[in-house]
Amino acid sequence: MDVQAWTFLIVGVTFALYIGIAIASRARSTGEFYVAGKGVSPLANGMATAADWMSAASFISMAGIIAFAGMDGSVYLMGWTGGYVLLALLLAPYLRKFGKFTVPDFMGDRYYSQLARIVAVVCAIFISFTYIAGQMRGVGVVFSRFLEVDINLGVVIGMGLVFFYAVLGGMKGITYTQVAQYCILIFAYTIPAFFLAFMVTGNPIPQLALGG
Hints:
- This protein is mainly alpha-helical.
- The protein has one domain (3-203).
- It is built from nine helices and no strands.
- It has helices at 3-24, 30-35, 42-53, 56-69, 74-90, 92-98, 103-110, 114-146, 151-201.
- Helix 4 packs across helix 8 (114-146) and helix 8 crosses helix 9.
- The model has no long low-confidence stretch (mean pLDDT 80).
């Protein structure tokens, strides 16, 4: 088979994997839809969170801006990573403690204010739209490159796939598809790094030769 046929095969298998995970882990209650029934292990949660960080915005855009801007581009990397740490330390534990599913619910109950709830809704919509716009653009770029389709059609394909497993599986389906994505991305990150290191230094893990 030629490269294009292999590409369609791999993408098709990936789609089937995501859809299969969504069907197998479909939500059967509100708790499963919003918080995966609180039955996801810490390891799986960590892998899913890491996959969120290693998304299209990081894998394509962040790498591109650092390659283009050099060290100045690392400012975006630190802000990107720092935001995840702040959310994990300052917000996520209290959502669980209060038993709330969304940030607006938490803010409204925590500060006994409907205004705080509305402000949180507006902020969540603005931040989510900004984030998703970049992600979907990245999806469109990837699909247009590998499937040889128009970038707008690539965005539609990506949105359809995400909509399917998000609506069907809820947080449980999203978590386990993110775990699968984590495994794929870790492979995609590390294998080229090993080959590049071997080409430059003759050692796939040059750090091990430090001081030798």
